[in-house]
Automatic annotation (TrEMBL):
It is an enzyme of class 2 (transferase). GO terms for cellular component: plasma membrane. Keywords: ATP-binding, Kinase, Nucleotide-binding, Transferase. The keyword Nucleotide-binding applies. It comes from Erythroxylum novogranatense. Residues 1-359 form the PIPK domain. GO terms for molecular function: 1-phosphatidylinositol-4-phosphate 5-kinase activity; ATP binding. PROSITE patterns: PIPK. Its EC number is 2.7.1.68. Pfam families: PIP5K (PF01504). The lineage of its organism: Eukaryota, Viridiplantae, Streptophyta, Embryophyta, Tracheophyta. This is 1-phosphatidylinositol-4-phosphate 5-kinase.
Amino acid sequence: MAVLQKEIPAFEFRDAQINKIRYCKQDFAHISHYVVTDYDWKDYCPVAFRRLRELENIDHTEYMLAICAEDVIREVSAPGKFGRLIILTTDERFVIKTLRKSEVKVMVDMLPNYYAYLKKNRASLLTKLYGIHVVKPHGGLKVYFSVLSTVIPSSVGKCKIYDLKGTPKGRKQNRKKIEGKVIYKDKDFDLLLHLDPLTHYKFLKQLRDDCEFLESEKIMDYSLLIGVAMQAPNKVATDGSCSCGQKAVPNSSSTAKFGSLNKSGEMCQMSNSPDFNFGMAMRARATTRRGGSAHPSIQDPRGCNVKLYFKIVDIFQNYGVSKRIEHVYKSLQYDSKSIAAVSPEVYSTRFQDYLHQIFQSEDSEKGDAF
């Protein structure tokens, strides 16, 4: 698209548009004749977010119809709902998450660099932010919310979901539910995930780049939201077959060839695809972590074939005053390196180290040493 070649003027990252939404019950095609409900509506940085959506080939009209659906707006702005609300749009393409006004400021401040980074790193693991809006029903209160990419499609069948931060402190069996799905945490995760060598290398490189970006933006407290879908029992692939269906680089020369790939910028066919997305039905082999309890879905000692769905989420929490106070307070009770509220530099290193242990290469000598 030609529009993507143009730079976004700086003022567009501070712009806002105010509109009014009207709904009717009898006939949505003739809203003006059957108005029953009015909402004040505000879009933050509409041009910038439209460009972000264009990067993902999201049609503007379809986007607005999805997030402005009457049932969605009613649920988001319903009185008496306090705290964080996370819902799916009716078409299940987008996640809507209510915000505090202070969070909106962090997102808007970060938006120029976030847009530039995603435009350059199309295979990023970071969750995609598609819009920030405010809705206010007539006579009601303002509700701020963001619109994000869906991490785990509803079409995925039986799938166990984890929210992993890389620290065990307070990270077990809270079992929060989102859209009826149980979300497990770090201490519940008892798997090693084996990727073919090339995919493993590129995944860790992208993870490093993403974490360095978040660190530069002074962001912490993010996590890897991952869904593990066990596949029907069949022959377990342990020969390093590429996740894109191609044979991986032979183990004996993988390190040298990976270095060459990194310098030349070459990618395998899957990664070159404009629609390529890490963490979307990525094939892997799962084994039980040493010391972990036997996983009911893994009967074969060689492991079980799985599909992985994941993204780095909650990427707009900065290390501000409240988090610094939390760090000081919890450091008096626990090891300061084990708590969630740590500096962006410490958080980034710990998060990467943890995922390096979970995601293994099929040619790794470590096996299930974690």
